[in-house]
């Protein structure tokens, strides 16, 4: 069986390819190019997915492929990335929402455009593999996406928008490992990526570099309308932000809401960040759709442990009720639903109250 492995030059994808090769698969390496032709070379910093050091990552992946003697290709995904991921990123910030570009990249570039473009270039393969910490398990003839066994590294949250019909064509070899085991395997096999730092974000630097919005002065206010200071554009702030507000007050303040219509940043106390319910749209189900009033687990940010919720279906949207109030819910982020370790599906948060 031929397996195309998405290589980034990092330890996770390198060990993924190594493990598959040792298991007897015919492994092919591919790295996607997403850093645009017209980007200023001085923008961004190193150690991110989208940045000016992309050529270094490509060369690292190429050298690794040569080390273990597998074919290697660079797939040009720049046009797709700019039209899909970056345009969504800009539009969401412009409309006072906070997007998660990694989720869009996985769904529409890494697991869609990359393998499709690879096949168009004549690369033949049966399945596509990456170094994500997640699992795909077949149960009763159905392929399900599950959390990685290493709960600290679990990346299933970022994968909820994958296509259900494609799960049987995807492999996640690292899903049953802990991160320290992967680094140990890399060291034992003398891989140069063994000590390489993990990428921390899709872009390392000021998001203003990518948004390129003109400054627009507005007010930073309390919910009662009291003006505390000025800002240069609501898109420079995120829900729950505490540091860098540039205002002084008798208690710590957090960003509660961003108002596009009035260009206002609403701030308040920690208690005022708490929400009881959300509305979720654009839902993608990877397992059987649950019924209303079902008690599930959910995550509204990638780093938290799943918590208890109940759901109600309202037309094509879902009202999600938190059993315990949650802080700093950001519109534009994703709510992802679980039944134990099985990822059921998820969608985009459009309202919070």
Please render the helix and strand layout as text.
Layout: E1 2-6, H1 11-22, E2 26-33, H2 54-67, E3 72-76, H3 78-94, H4 101-120, E4 127-129, E5 134-139, E6 142-147, E7 170-171, H5 179-188, H6 208-211, E8 218-222, E9 227-231, E10 254-259, E11 264-268, E12 274-285, E13 295-299, E14 307-314, E15 317-327, E16 334-339, E17 342-352
Parallel strand pairs: 1-2, 1-4, 2-3, 4-7, 8-11
Antiparallel strand pairs: 5-6, 8-9, 10-11, 12-15, 12-17, 13-14, 13-16, 14-15, 16-17
Helix pairs in contact: 1-5, 3-4
Question: Can you describe this structure?
Answer:
The chain is α/β, with parallel strands linked by helices and 353 residues long. It contains 6 helices and 17 strands. The strands form 4 sheets. The protein has a 6-stranded antiparallel beta barrel with strand order 12-15-14-13-16-17. Strands 3-2-1-4-7 form a 5-stranded parallel sheet. A 4-stranded mixed sheet has the order 9-8-11-10, with no helix packed on it. Helix 2 links the parallel strand 2 and strand 3 (72-76). The radius of gyration is 21 Å and the shape is globular. The model has no long low-confidence stretch (mean pLDDT 95).
